[in-house]
Design goal:
heterodimer; A: alpha/beta; Rossmann fold; six-stranded mixed sheet; B: mainly alpha; flat
Chain lengths: 248, 291
């Protein structure tokens, strides 16, 4: 068993709402092994994004801690790389300038990052678009550029927040298969939020199911199927039933 | 990924078709409309007899040719005042906008004053500047600056605050400093808005200089207009107005050009939309022909 890379220990968070205190997360425990692909599914509005914001360091939890590689990083920024649902490419920067933004922020030599980025444009299916502006790219291409930016942040873990939620079904299928390629190639751990059960099972080593608000971990399901997975296989369908039952 | 491949043929013939479409839309349409109006105006003079108060375009062109040296002599001063006032307004505006943006409380304090400053009739207080600063160039520059700074401040403050919050958060996750967030997201995001303000200001600036000259000057188109007005030379007056219009358009155009140079990304997007609208329209025409 590989050692856990990220541990989320007993995280709780409440917000002050118009009707008093609104508990959002309750005693969330999770562990993500090095190099693994872990998904979180749950009903919409259950606090998945709040959990992500806590791991990113944008919000501090009321109780609990985030531990990465043995270090307590609760409330710290710049320790994970994050890819939101919207691609959030800066329209005023070309694709190459967009994808190296992480090294620019950290003060790493940008020219070196660009050199490395150029070699990756083929892998990300963006060859020839290095100097294009985001507005001239299709939705799928923009999403791949956003993922490249996330990869080039050079963090041990990537958080993907419903990253394919805005894409049409066809593009989404392609993007999932291709994301697995990228994941295997770069050996990064991925924490993936989705509300699509099939997507979670197709991609993940492990799936966490969150319950309705206040969210608790309702089920921790290790998906022990070889890749590439066939969504219509009986084993796959068995897993799907388990997840559906947990979400009821 | 098939969808991406389909895009390619479009990108190949896009520039050519786009160019034709834009030429018709941006050059032919506005100019032909102006020419139609001028011809109608001229025809009115021919049919109903010439009117001293509204001389036809041919008379105005005549007046322009006759007085061109004098017009250019005065226009030079007006343009210098307009440009200097505009530049001063720009510097003051950027300073004020950054101040307001940085100290949020200041916005509540300064904003009402900014709005009030725009309600003061400038024609009424312009003579005060003459008394204070004399007949030279300075009072005119101040009048121009007073008229120009408001749109720039407002557009910059609101542009800076309108930045996409998610983009800002993306950088915060990367542990970016406030200065990095400003430089990489908030300022570029505000540029569209800032340039709207700058273009409004540029279009006002020449008029501001003329108002400044109107209440007292040694040189300038404002002075020229007062002189010809007193001798009822409406044709020369209108010739001067044409020069003012041309100068305003020149400054406006210069700002437009500057925006295109500084924001190529903004226009690359605009092109995409143009071609799209163009294609849809063509498709509609084809459908109608078939139906």
């Amino acid at each position: 068993m590989p050692e856990p890379l990220i541990e989320i220990n007993g995280i709780s968070k409440s917000f002050k709402g118009p009707e008093g205190i609104l508990p959002t997360l309750r005693e969330i425990n999770m562990s993500i092994e090095k190099g693994s692909f872990v998904s979180i599914i749950g009903p919409s509005g259950c606090g998945k994004s709040t959990l992500f914001n806590i791991i990113c360091g944008l919000i501090t939890p009321d109780t609990g801690s985030v531990v990465i590689e043995g270090k307590n990083v609760t409330g710290q920024r710049g320790v994970v790389s994050y890819m939101p649902q919207k691609d959030l490419l800066f329209p005023w920067r070309t694709i190459i300038d967009n994808v190296v933004i992480g090294s620019l922020i950290e003060g790493r030599p940008v020219e070196e990052s660009k050199k490395r980025a150029r070699e990756l444009f083929g892998v990300f299916g963006l060859e020839g678009f290095e100097n294009s502006y985001p507005a001239t790219l299709s939705g799928g291409m923009r999403q791949r550029a956003a993922l490249m930016r996330t990869v080039l942040c050079e963090k041990p873990i990537m958080l993907l927040d419903e990253s394919f939620g805005g894409l049409d079904a066809m593009t989404r299928r392609n993007m999932q298969a291709w994301l697995l390629n990228i994941w295997e190639r770069f050996q990064r751990s991925v924490l993936f939020i989705t509300h699509d059960i099939e997507e979670a099972l197709y991609l993940s080593d492990k799936v966490y199911v969150l319950t309705e608000r206040p969210a608790e971990v309702g089920l921790e399901l290790v998906v022990d199927l070889p890749r590439p997975r066939v969504v219509t296989s009986p084993e796959f369908v068995e897993y799907k039933k388990k997840l559906l039952a947990a979400l009821e | 990924m098939n969808q991406d491949k389909e895009k390619e043929p479009q990108t190949i013939n896009k520039p050519l078709r786009n160019w034709r479409f834009r030429f018709i839309k941006n050059i032919i349409m506005p100019f032909s409309f102006i020419i139609v109006i001028l011809f109608a105006w001229e025809a009115y003079g021919v049919v109903f007899g010439e009117n001293r108060l509204l001389p036809p375009p041919s008379r105005i062109i005549n007046a322009f040719v006759e007085t061109r040296e004098l017009l250019f002599f005065h226009a030079k001063y007006t343009l210098i005042e307009a440009a200097m006032g505009f530049l001063l307004a720009f510097l003051v505006s950027v300073f004020l906008a950054l101040l307001i943006d940085h100290f949020k409380l200041l916005k509540q304090a300064i904003y009402p004053l900014l709005v009030i400053s725009q309600t003061v009739p400038i024609v009424a207080i312009a003579p005060l500047f003459i008394v204070l600063f004399g007949f030279g160039i300075l009072p005119k520059v101040i009048v121009v600056a007073l008229m120009c700074f408001f749109p720039i401040v407002i557009s910059m403050v609101e542009g800076l605050q309108a930045a996409d919050k998610d983009m800002v958060d993306l950088l915060r996750v990367m542990d970016a400093s406030n200065w990095q967030i400003f430089r990489l997201v908030r300022f570029p995001a505000a540029l569209v808005s800032i340039f709207s303000g700058i273009k409004i200001a540029a279009a006002y600036s020449v008029m501001g200089a003329v108002i400044g000259e109107w209440v007292g000057a040694r040189y300038g188109l404002g002075l020229f207009m007062i002189l010809v007005q007193k001798s009822f030379r409406t044709d020369q007056m209108l010739a001067a107005i044409a020069v003012i219009t041309a100068a305003s358009l020149l400054l406006f155009g210069a700002m437009e050009l500057l925006q295109r140079l500084l924001m190529p990304w903004y226009y690359s997007k605009g092109d995409g939309e143009d071609i799209f609208v163009d294609q849809k329209r063509e498709r509609k025409v084809v459908n109608e022909e078939e139906g």
